[in-house]
Amino acid sequence: MAVKVIQEKCIGCGICIDTCPFDAIDMVDEKAVITDKCTACGNCIDVCPKEAIIMEEREKDIINIDEYKGVWVFAEQREGKLLNVSIELIGEGRKIADELDTELTAILLGKDVDDLSKQLIKYGADNVLYGESELLQIYTTDGYTKVICDLIKERKPEIMLIGATNIGRDLGPRISARIHTGLTADCTRLEVDKENRRLLQTRPAFGGNLMATIICPNHRPQMSTVRPGVMEKAKYDESRLGNIEKFVPNLREEDIKAKVLEVVKEAKAQVKLEEANIIVSGGRGLGNPEGFKLIEELAEKLGAVVGASRATVDAGWIDQSHQVGQTGKTVRPTLYIACGISGAIQHLAGMQESEVIVAINKDKNAPIFKIADYGVVGDVYEVLPELIEALDNIDEILESVN
Amino acid sequence: MKIIVCIKQVPDTNEVRIDPVKGTLIREGVPSIINPDDRNALEEALKIKDECEGVEVVVLSMGPPQAEVALVEAIAMGADEAILLSDRAFAGSDTWATSTALAAGIKAIGDYDIIFCGRQAIDGDTAQVGPQIAEHLGIPQITYVKELKLEGKKVKAKRALEDGYFVIEAELPVLITAIKELNEPRYPSIRGIYEGFKGDRIKILSAKDINVDEKNIGLDGSPTQVNKSFTPPGRGGESEIIEGSPKEQARQLIVRLKEEKLI
């Protein structure tokens, strides 16, 4: 597939150049020229007033995609517990399977986790394929990839969803390379085009400055990873029934080349951003790492969790576990207070689903105010201490208003 | 011992801004940098070179001719040799096609013991190319590595998880993806910058040079395609700007949040 300019029709107006998100069009002798940076996104085709830009389809080696049926979810478990993201994906997978009028199958690998297979049914799976082995108790790239690829080759699912955890992001690409299919990372929205059974996978691109909808037209399964906290959890229904198929995978110890010698839990207090009701976040506008002391103080008063923008993490002001945004965590608290955060799209991508957003920033033109429900234009070093004090005297303040 | 480090030149996405009127990306003046995680990958290779005898570090990248600047910097940091895969045929590659091309480049270099990659690039954030290269080469991978020890013909690595880490052991050859915690990348030396700009340690190879099937690279070789791209929609709705002195602003805000039962 390639984008082509019909020279005779091009009038050199340059509208396509302004539209191209990838800076992939040059003007040469008053004619548009598509360069190597082109990703065939097609935006220029839509805006060209002279219909001078077209998409050229080329012939491909096409696999018989009609043989592939059903939606699969990799149900990641650690130490005998399903991860929340697995339950979120069951919820999302259920919707997709219903739209495509097909079945939802959860892939569960582990040892002595029979009760999890029952839970997966009650959360919404039609089938559970449960591969049980000593060798699958702890995740290994080699073991999990082999077992899942064997299943895909045998049963041919059309869609496979994987949680974008540190493990899912190790497993997904390895499977996609072995099967020779496409994988779209960190999707924030999944839809289906029912007519040709395509999965429309929307994800932030270009550091979250742009959204892109990705398709995988000629390969199966269509694979996506989805970050924890992005999709809503499936509802547990005690009465649901389904098929559980337990099997012994064809896996030997020597198949596992990278061996896990030890699993170490770190005592480091976990930053539970995804589960927080209130988040108070700090950005570059704090000016220095000391600023986070104020953020922490306010957070403590509100029973909130501390978040941070990428700029502050890159600068080493705060640990990466606090990072909200495209490269950090995706959050949806009821209240998000952004302090000294300008609102780069990469940050917004991780927090714009918050119910109510408060922005405190010196610069009244900061993009964060565009999405804030309440904006306070002011210096964080003046406003935050007042907020902390106001919280101490909250009853008195409320009385004076009423 | 031969170590290959895969690096990518990326726009510094921290510096990308949106034109408030047109809603399009402002690209002018956005600097190109070596992807941050890739610097950690290179540093780890250079550390091994510092500590052991007879280690050769080759840097490999794929991109337009301008990406050579990133390779000059890699030489300046201490790499022995650098190769840029640059060819129109590679344009538009997704992660599958990119990893296919890089794996072909690695096979062309040959005789490798360790491949280092950064965990992910800041312009795509997929973290897919490293593991996909390992699969194309049929070698084990250890991703998200925050500590690495070379023990004879084996590596032992601490591999980060959300709430701790695995200790993983694998025999060479192996592919490692580096995270920020792995090390502190060095700065180029003056002598290194001179070496880099001489340019005689940088080679540019085409698709034909590395013997890769053109069906598997570029837009045509990519299983995934961009269907459309757009600037993210806003949240809609009006925002209320709270005016007054900091004290008044704080008090008003608290009242609003209390009324909405948010605090």
**Domain module tally of chain B:** 1
Provide a count of the helices of chain B.
6
The appropriate CATH architecture of chain B is 3-Layer(aba) Sandwich
Indicate the structural class of chain A: alpha/beta
CATH level-1 class of the largest domain in chain A: Alpha Beta
Query: Which H/E pattern describes the elements of chain B?
Result: EEEEEHEHEHEHEEEEHEEEH
Helical percentage of chain B:
25-40%
Write down the CATH topology of the largest domain in chain A: Rossmann fold
Helix content of chain A: 25-40%
**Over all CA atoms, what is the radius of gyration of chain A?**
25 Å
Explain what this protein looks like in three dimensions:
The complex is a heterodimer of chains A (402) and B (263). With 402 residues, chain A is an alpha/beta fold. Chain A has twelve helices and 22 strands. Chain A has helices spanning 15-19, 43-47, 84-99, 114-123, 141-155, 168-179, 291-302, 310-314, 345-351, 368-371, 380-392, 394-401; strands at 2-5, 25-28, 31-34, 53-56, 71-74, 77-78, 81-82, 104-110, 127-132, 159-163, 183-187, 189-193, 198-205, 210-215, 222-226, 243-247, 259-265, 278-282, 305-308, 335-339, 356-361, 374-377. By secondary structure, chain B is α/β, with parallel strands linked by helices. In chain B, 28% of the residues lie in helices and 30% in strands. In chain B, the strands form three sheets. A nine-stranded mixed β-sheet of chain B has the order 11-10-9-12-8-1-6-7-13, sandwiched between helices. A two-stranded antiparallel ribbon of chain B has the order 2-5. In chain B, a hairpin with a 2-residue loop joins strand 10 and strand 11 (164-171). Chain B is globular, with a radius of gyration of 22 Å. Chains A and B meet through helix 5, helix 6, strand 11, strand 13 and strand 14 of A and strand 3, helix 3, helix 4, strand 9 and strand 10 of B.
